[in-house]
Amino acid sequence: MDAEGVGRVGAFDVRRVDETIERLRAADYRFGGGACCEAVLAELRTAHRMFAAGATDSVRTRLCGAVADLHNLAG
After folding, report:
1. 27: exposed, middle or buried (C-beta count within 10 Å: 0-12, 13-18, 19+)?
2. Which of 1, 35, 43, 47 could cross-link 31 (Cys pair, CB 3.0–4.6 Å)?
3. Against a cut of 0.85, is the pTM above it?
4. What is the pLDDT of residues 11-24, one digit of tens each?
């Protein structure tokens, strides 16, 4: 997927979001939420742009779950 959210989102893209969530959650647990707040918000902006791209139903479902998890982490 390109920076403008155009193109296709694949399983690799969602896996990257999931891996980023794992790293950010680890930082949150270790240092507190303030340590990763800006990074979480930046990742949310990127992930939301992915919805403008094409994706299979399976990938879109996984993306929805990842974005929900990001919102949970932001909270």
Report:
1. middle
2. 35
3. no
4. 999 999 999 999 99
| Alpha carbon separation from 34 to 12, 48, 56, 58 (Å, rounded) | 28, 22, 35, 33
In the chain, where the domains are located: 11-74
Query: What's the half-sphere exposure (Cβ side, CA atoms, 13 Å) at 58?
Result: 4
Dihedral over Cα of 66, 71, 72, 74: its sign: positive
Q: How far apart are alpha carbons 22 and 29 in whole angstroms? A: 11
What is the C-alpha to C-alpha distance for residues 53 and 48, in angstroms, rounded to an integer?
Answer: 10
Query: What is the chain's pLDDT, residue by residue, as a tens digit (75 residues)?
Result: 444 546 899 999 999 999 999 999 999 999 987 888 899 999 999 999 999 999 999 999 999 999 999 999 988
